[in-house]
Design goal:
OB fold (Dihydrolipoamide Acetyltransferase, E2P), alpha+beta, elongated, 5-stranded antiparallel beta sheet
Length: 407
C-alpha cells in the first residue's frame, strides 16, 4: 500500500513545527544540532545501516516549510515501515495505530462500486466496535445493545481513502479511554503532545483486531481443509479467538460478492515497543466460513437474556389449567432472522399467549436461548408480555383442551 506525496494543504492543516519536533523526541530521535535556520535530528535506532537524519526549519513561516515537513514524514515512514499519511495521522492524533483494508474491485484505482464501499465501511465500524467491546466482554456473542464505551471509541476513529485498488484506512487513537484528558482534546480537535499511558486503550483495540483476524483466518483454513468442525469457532466461550461481531465484519469486508482483500496493521512508536507491520490476505473462501461461523455462534450457542418478538403459532397443554408449551415465530434481538422458538409458560402467561394467538397479536418474551437437536428453546423465562393491538380483548373467555391452536 503506497501513497503519493502529501499536498501542501494536507501538511499545513494537520501539522505544526512544534508537533513534529515533539514527535521526533518521543519517538526516539535525538536533536544533534541547531542554528538560526534549521535543526538536525538523527535516529538513534540501529536497524538501518546508516543513521537517518531529518532537517527541520526553526520557523514555520519559511517558504520551503511544506517541502521540509513532507521530507520529514517520508523519512519517518521509511524508518517506521509505515506510510507518510499513517505517520501524519499518528502525529495529529497524539498517537494512533492504523488498520487499512485494500479491496480489489474491478474498477479504476481509487474507485469502488457503491455496494462494496458501503459494505466495507460498515464492516470496519463493526470490526472496531466488536474488538473494543471484547476488551471487557469475553463472550462469543456480544449483547444486543452495544457497550457505550465501544461505540464512543469507534466514533473517534478517523477514516480516509487512498488509491491503490481501493484502500480504506482507519487511524485508531491510542489515548482514548473514556474520560481521559487526551481523549477530550482529540474529541474537540485540539492537538495533543503525546502524553500516553502505558498500554493505552487504543493499542489494546488494535492488538485485538489483529489477533482476532489472524485467529479467524487460521480457523477458517482448518475448517475448509476438514481438519476441524465449524463449532471450533465456539470452543472457548469464555475467551473466544473472535466473537460473532468480529467474524461478521471480516466476512462483510469483502462485500456482497466476497472479493479478495488485504488487511494491514501498523503501530505507532509512541506507545512502547513498535511491532512490525502485518498484512493479512483474506480469501473469498475464508470470508464464507467466517460468515457461517458468525451465524453459528449467534444461533447455535446458548445465550442468556435473549428477547424474541413475534406471533404465537402453536399452543399445547395437557389439561384445561396449568402451564403449557408455546411456539413463537419471531425475530430475536441479535440475529435479525425469523425463527421458531419453543418455550414453557406458567398458567397466567400461557393464558395471555392464548389471547394473543386468538387475536393475532405479537408477544415479547425474554429468556435463555438454547438449541436442542433441530429446535431452538427459550428457557428460564424472565419476561412475557402481549404487545397490545387495536382489537385486543381483555376478557376471560379461554378455549380449553389439550391443543387450543388446533395445530
Amino acid at each position: 500500500m503506497t501513497g503519493p506525496h502529501l499536498s501542501d494543504d494536507e501538511v499545513m492543516a494537520a501539522l505544526d513545527l512544534r508537533l513534529v519536533a515533539e514527535y521526533l523526541r518521543v519517538a526516539g530521535w535525538s536533536l544533534e544540532d541547531q542554528d538560526a535556520r534549521t535543526s538536525l535530528w538523527r535516529s538513534v535506532t540501529t536497524q538501518h545501516a546508516e543513521p537517518l537524519e531529518i532537517v527541520l526549519p526553526v520557523r514555520q513561516e519559511v517558504s520551503d516549510y511544506t517541502d521540509r515537513i513532507d521530507a520529514a514524514l517520508r523519512t519517518l515512514a521509511f524508518a517506521e515501515r509505515r506510510l507518510p499519511e499513517e505517520v501524519r495521522s499518528d502525529m495529529s492524533f497524539g498517537g494512533a495505530d492504523t488498520v487499512a483494508v485494500r479491496l480489489t474491485p474491478d474498477a479504476p484505482p481509487g474507485e469502488a462500486p457503491l455496494s462494496l464501499a458501503h459494505s466495507a465501511v460498515s464492516a470496519l465500524h463493526n470490526f472496531v466496535v466488536g474488538s473494543a467491546a471484547a476488551i471487557e466482554i469475553h463472550e462469543l456473542v456480544l449483547p444486543s445493545h452495544r457497550p457505550p464505551w465501544a461505540e464512543s471509541y469507534a466514533s473517534r476513529v478517523r477514516l480516509s481513502t487512498h488509491p491503490g485498488s481501493f484502500i480504506l484506512s482507519l487511524a485508531l487513537p491510542l489515548a482514548a479511554d473514556i474520560g481521559d484528558e487526551a481523549s477530550a482534546d482529540q474529541a474537540t480537535g485540539k492537538q495533543v503532545m503525546f502524553n500516553l499511558p502505558p498500554q493505552p486503550f487504543g493499542r489494546r483495540v488494535s492488538n485485538r483486531m489483529l489477533r482476532s483476524a489472524q485467529a479467524a483466518r487460521q480457523l477458517a483454513d482448518e475448517v475448509s481443509a476438514g481438519d476441524r468442525p465449524l463449532r471450533a469457532f465456539g470452543e472457548d466461550p469464555q475467551r473466544p479467538a473472535a466473537n460473532a461481531t468480529e467474524l461478521a465484519a471480516l466476512k462483510a469486508l469483502g462485500g456482497p460478492e466476497y472479493g479478495l482483500y488485504q488487511l494491514r496493521f501498523t503501530q505507532s512508536p509512541l506507545a512502547g515497543q513498535q511491532s512490525e507491520p502485518v498484512t493479512l490476505r483474506i480469501t473469498p473462501g475464508q470470508q464464507r466460513i467466517m460468515g457461517e461461523a458468525a451465524d453459528f455462534l449467534r444461533t447455535r450457542q446458548p445465550r442468556a437474556g435473549v428477547t424474541v418478538q413475534g406471533l404465537v403459532v402453536r399452543l399445547h397443554r395437557s389439561g384445561a389449567f396449568g402451564s403449557g408449551d408455546v411456539v413463537i415465530e419471531g425475530v430475536d434481538d441479535d440475529s435479525g432472522t425469523t425463527r421458531r422458538y419453543r418455550l414453557e409458560l406458567a398458567e397466567d402467561d400461557y393464558n395471555d399467549a392464548v389471547r394473543a394467538h386468538r387475536n393475532g397479536l405479537q408477544v415479547s418474551v425474554t429468556g435463555d436461548r438454547e438449541e436442542r437437536g433441530t429446535h431452538l428453546h427459550l428457557r428460564r423465562i424472565t419476561l412475557f408480555s402481549v404487545i397490545p393491538g387495536l382489537d385486543y380483548e381483555d376478557d376471560a373467555d379461554l378455549p380449553t383442551g389439550p391443543d387450543v391452536s388446533g395445530a
